Amino acid sequence: MINYYVEKEYESLSKRTAQLLIDEINKKPAGLFCFAGGDTPVKTLELLAAAEQAGKVDLSQASFIQLDEWVNIDPNNHGSCRNYLQRTLFDSIRTSEENIHFFNPNSIDLAEECWLANAFIEKKGGLSLALLGIGVNGHLGFNEPGTPFDVNTHVVTLSESTKKVGEKYFEKTSFFERGITLGLAQILAAEMLIVIASGSTKTNAVQTVLKGSPREDCPASGMWLREESTLIIDRSLAETL
Ligand code: GLP
Asked: What pTM does this model have?
């Protein structure tokens, strides 16, 4: 089952999502949380950081794992997923470095990077909550269309769509051919899964999800493999469906 919400606008979508995060983190303060990069969760993560500063949620015991990253990127590059999470959330909250697992996208041994992420998740007993955006092509993290639903962390050859859309994150023209991402098996096994989408570029992806069954050509439709997932979109997107 998918709990499906259409919010009036991006602001209220972010507010509802942040409240779901706060409630869940308050229930599992020592859990493992995974938040996507990208434009869609920005406001949600800012609201989460503000809630922490206001004492409404305690993030000091929580662990975090990065969802995905561009392979070979400098972590200080403004377009890196790590830099995004740092700016949007981690720089504003009380947490310590050992509670956060980041990818090293410049490792000479990317298989080891996958192994390290898998081991971190396993050690923590799986993800407590995953908050994801959805790619224009339906991807989750960097799990591109065609990815089996049962894979763990892996290195991906990025699709043309992902590379093209990804240009929006960079200040200078950047070319990344590969990504590293938590796998659909790990994402779909999260105790709570929230997918958010806003704006008309996501029409096709959300329409495919709403067809009601999991299909490999749309990783986000894997939500249907779960007993319960949450999909929150805004009205500007809903009107295009
Ligand atoms: C990007 C990222 C995803 C993100 C998605 C949507 O390529 N790899 O983690 O959730 O695509 O991004 P946005 O919210 O900017 O539309």
From this structure: 0.96
